[in-house]
From TrEMBL:
Keywords: Membrane, Transmembrane, Transmembrane helix. The chain crosses the membrane at residues 15-37, 49-70, 90-110. Pfam families: DUF1980, DUF1980_C. This is TIGR03943 family protein. It comes from the Bacteria. Residues 22-125, 146-271 form the DUF1980 domain. It comes from Aphanothece sacrum FPU1.
Length: 273
């Protein structure tokens, strides 16, 4: 007798498994619809796919309802013959559906969270966007410097990556704080995540901020609104790897004139176009 054979369910429970399959499908339909209704979907997936998620949730509801109705109809007729229907499976029946139900219920009670500064450090904070994710028509070169968001500053740097070209320009940007141990104590990174498809491929972009005080005044992960003047500084840090570089690199830096703590925005991510 194998371990899995010991875990085989009681014969009466075999009548429940088809109903559990229907419950799993309905639970996932409910989870996707809940994310769509309460706006949490934007923490998980690019807005281009919101419609697809909504359609998927509706289809799951229809399939789950149909399967539940068939199961209920079959149950009333007691037409399931557990003696004649034999299936060879690695795991006892119902395990897969049970795991799907548990996962969906966990998703209903545990909301998705915003990526932290630790994730940004692990993935590396970029000052550029991948070439394949830039669309020339999306670049707004006529926007006033002080009206650019942090992500628009990154796009501007992609279009013309000479930091000296922006010296003296005003900026007013928002983002979350990242502390890098290889930056001087009066520097922080101001960062935001960009989603190209879903949260799995999210990557952080950002710019160094030169403070008048110490970085300890601004703990990691808090959100700041920074009014600054653009300057060029030479820093010995590779933002792609967040490691020291043997040769210093000229970088565009936000020379902070005003720093204000703000709440985490309802829409904390940027999205590739």
């Amino acid at each position: 007798m194998t371990l899995f054979s010991k875990l085989q369910p009681a014969r009466k429970l075999k009548f429940i498994w088809p109903g559990l399959d229907a419950l799993a499908i309905l639970a996932w339909g409910a989870l996707l619809l809940r994310y769509w209704l309460n706006g949490q979907l934007k923490l998980l997936i690019h807005p281009n796919y919101f419609g697809l998620v909504l359609i998927t949730s509706i289809i799951l509801f229809l399939l789950g309802s149909l399967k539940g109705w068939l199961w209920f109809k079959q149950l009333r007729k007691q037409s399931i013959d557990s003696e004649t229907v034999q299936h060879i499976t690695l795991f006892p029946p119902g395990w897969g559906s049970s795991l799907l139900v548990i996962t969906a219920i966990a998703g209903l009670f545990i909301p998705p969270t915003v990526f932290s500064s630790q994730v940004a450090l692990q993935r590396g904070i970029s000052e550029s966007l991948p070439v394949t994710q830039i669309q020339a028509e999306a670049f707004r070169g006529t926007v006033k410097p002080e009206d650019r968001t942090l992500i628009e500053w990154i796009r501007t740097l992609n279009a013309y990556p000479e930091p000296d070209a922006y010296n003296g320009q005003k900026a007013k940007v928002t983002g979350f704080v990242v502390h890098s141990p290889i930056l001087p104590k009066n520097y922080i990174f101001l960062s935001r995540f960009i989603l190209t498809c879903c949260a799995v491929d999210a990557y952080p972009v950002g710019l160094p901020v030169k403070l008048e005080g110490d970085q300890k005044d601004y703990p990691p992960d808090i959100w700041l609104e920074v009014e600054a003047e653009m300057i060029t500084e030479t820093l010995a840090v590779d933002t792609q790897t967040m490691q020291k570089t043997p040769t210093q690199k000229r970088q565009l830096v936000l020379d902070a004139k005003s720093v204000k703590t703000i709440p985490t925005p309802a829409d904390p991510y940027g999205y590739a176009q």
